[in-house]
Amino acid sequence: MFKEINLRNYSSLHKLFYSLITQPRLKSILTSLISKNNDTYISPKALAAKLGVTTRTLRSDIKNLNNSLKIYDVSIKNKRGHGLYLLINDREKFKSLVERIKESGIVTDGGDDYKKRLKDFLLLILTKPREIDDIISTMYISDSTVDKYLKEARKVAKNYHLKIQKDGDLLRMKGSESDIRSCIIDYIDNKRGNNYVRGFSKSEKVIFSDLDLNKLLTKVTNLIVALGLPMSDYSDKNITIHLALELARSKTNNQLRNFNRNIPYIREEYFDKVSKFFEEVFRSYELEYSEAEFHYFIYHLALNYPQLMLEHSNNDVKNKKIHDIVIEFLDRIKDDYVFNLMQDKELIRNLEKHLELLLKVKNINGQRKNPLLNVIVSTFPLAYEMTVTASPLIEHQLNMKLSPDELAFITLHVGASMERLYNNRWDKKRAALVCGSGTATAMLLKARLSSQFSEYLNIVGVYSLYEYQHSDLKNTDFVISTVPIYESKLPVIQVDLSNFQNDSNELYQYLVSVSDKNKVIMNLFDGKLIYLLKDKLTKEKVLDLMIDDLEKYHYVESDFRDNVYKREDLYSTAIGGGIAIPHPIKYAATQSKVSFARLNEPIKWDDKNMIKYVFLISVNKKDYPNIQELFTFLVDLQQNQQFRNLIDKCKTINETKDVLRTIIQSVGYEK
Fold first, then answer.
1. Are 530 and 546 in contact (CB under 8 A)?
2. pLDDT at residue 143 in the model
């Protein structure tokens, strides 16, 4: 209890608490529990799987957390038969705990610690001239380490047309203000990280220490609401960071004198509100601003919300052209992959709206980041491949090159349509879906949730975090959220697209039992096409070995091999978890089969991935509409540690088939 703590230890206990919540895994445990409603529990097994640790490690983490939580009169308990929950003895102290966590900033997985430290070093020099002694004392590094970081930082700066000048012990970044800002924005935080919209990172808090970032975000959000635009937490965070950068640089007399991008023309009904907002923000900090600074803000506001921009062509002509492009795009998908998405009117409307906004972004030569690019490519490989294959038609008609980020945006719409059309059941439970990454991501997640849990689940509304906090959800049973919700009257279940398989375990009460579709998946595996390879082979030799047998048994057509290699040339078929799913660029099979190879040692598949498990997919044209479950199963294997544990122990082909059958059957969840 708090009252029993010796006051002499008070500060040390606070230090212990702060040291623990700066560790990503421990903070994730705590925020997961805080986001739950009082009547909701988390299964220790599900939470351990989500974090990628054993239940034993989880118990150890909870013990450490409980030691530090004593000062807040809070503890983590495990109720037998139910799961983990927070025991809160003092509501006021609990509110204080929540505030401390919010203030601590988002803790991201450091990954490569050297790269993280290099980023911190670079940001110190980017924001203002620094004495080497100041850098040493701030980062706790030696003179020799400074020299090492300086060498690497100069390489990075060169990519932005910048130069690090050394005058005695003073390091100064030289170059245009526009280039300096571009470098800061790229290095301040990972916009594709899962934590980006959950709050402000340590780096952001350090760089903008003189600004109240949460207050600034509230102002930006209120502006978007006043403009009547569809909410996106991700876009609002982007705009806030750019505005904060303008304010911080203006405070140190580093204002833009010119802005060389194409300045977007804002629709008249929006311009006055945006202009007044910008002027009031600068005035609140007692700062003057240049026309270039206003153009900088307008540019990034429009890049995140292209709806603001004026049309530059005849609407009727443009709308017909875009409609025709969408129909041709979907017709190409139907020809190449059989999926008939043209019957989905919602998809057609969404794609037309998306291409309209894409043209506006093109008019200002903008480049948008997709926060879920890597997740989309690895989680929805079939929808992404279909989009990539048919996208040259869009590129030709609109005279533009689609970046991987833009292709992933389109994939969200295609994937959501596939879920709607080819995985329909019926709905029961009522849930509000809160998503911080924009409407397209939310709709894809909604479609997938509705598909997988449809016997028990009905998504009654899709909201940004801001919209959820300001909505009265009377006809809602619980909340599914991609961002933490610390205080909620309804039960909250947090999910992550990149970890969907493990996160969805928390929805076990809504999950269906094993369906007949699992039998269809199992029938695709043939003992003659299972390989336990002991020799160290190259990617090409593994593929050729598997394709040779497909040809030998007349399961594929003569151009199958060429189409597999053409597909590999498009982009990697590695999907994570040591798994690759090679397949032809178009259907080229006489009979649908999945060949499986387990390698004793991982092989290099591409520049980034080492692969140990290869699923070579050969699907006959008539079966394409029914293989969505197969791709879902293979994607889910990325996070399935049981699959790796069991498959690695197999000694024979029959054992391997039995394990695959077990894993396929375990896709269904126990109620």
1. no
2. 85
Average the pLDDT over 358-385 and give the result. Answer: 85
Give the CATH superfamily of 315-421. Answer: PRD domain (1.10.1790.10)
Q: If you search the block for the tokens 């204080």, which residue do you land on?
A: 96
Q: Which tens digit of pLDDT belongs to each residue from 228-270? A: 998 888 899 999 999 999 999 999 999 999 988 888 888 888 9
Return the sign of the alpha-carbon dihedral for residues 550, 551, 555, 561.
positive
Lowest average pLDDT, out of 76-85, 451-460, 528-537, goes to 451-460
The answer to whether 23 and 107 have CB atoms below 8 angstroms apart is yes
Rg (CA), the chain: 27
User: How far apart, in Å, are the Cα atoms of 230 and each of 226, 253, 336, 433, 558?
Assistant: 11, 35, 34, 15, 50
- Cα 186 versus chain centre, distance: 17
Calpha distance 521→631 (Å, rounded): 10
CATH 2.170.130.10: does it fit domain 517-665?
no
CATH architecture of 2-103: Orthogonal Bundle (1.10)
Per-residue pLDDT tens digits for 471-498:
877 778 788 888 878 777 787 778 877 6
Which 3 state secondary structure label does DSSP give 87?
strand
Write the CA distances from 189 to 25, 173, 237, integer angstroms: 19, 19, 11
Residue type present at position 383: A
DSSP 485-546: -SS-SS-EEE--GGGHHHHGGGGGGG-----THHHHHHHTEEEEEEEEE-S---HHHHHHHH
d(CA 229, CA 605): 43
Residue span(s) of the chain under CATH 3.40.50.2300 come to: 423-510
Instruction: With a cut of 70, say whether residue 517 has pLDDT above it.
Output: no
d(CA 49, CA 58): 10
Cα dihedral 11, 14, 19, 23, rounded to 10, equals: 180
Whether CATH 3.40.50.2300 fits 423-510: yes
pTM of the shown model = 0.63
Structure tokens at 189: 């935080």
Structure tokens at 496: 């992550």
What are the residue ranges of CATH 3.40.930.10 in the chain? 517-665
Give the contacts of 395 (CB within 8 A, at least 6 positions apart).
401, 402
Distance from C-alpha of 223 to C-alpha of 432, rounded to nearest angstrom: 24
Position 555 scores a pLDDT of 93
The DSSP bridge partners found for residue 42 are 84
Other beta carbons within 10 angstroms of residue 292's beta carbon come to: 17
Instruction: Measure the CA–CA gap between 459 and 476, rounded to whole angstroms.
Output: 9
Instruction: Specify the domain boundaries for CATH 1.10.10.10 within the chain.
Output: 2-103
d(CA 402, CA 388): 9
What integer pLDDT is reported at residue 429 of this predicted model? 66
DSSP state of 230: P
CA–CA separation, 340 and 606 (whole Å): 32
Comma-separated ranges of CATH 1.10.1790.10 domains in the chain: 315-421
Those residues with Cβ within 8 angstroms of residue 131's Cβ, 6 or more apart along the chain or in another chain: 169, 170, 171
CA distances from 483 to 161, 186, 196, 197, 409 (A): 37, 23, 10, 7, 20
Tell me how many degrees the CA angle 271-277-278 measures, rounded to the nearest 5.
90
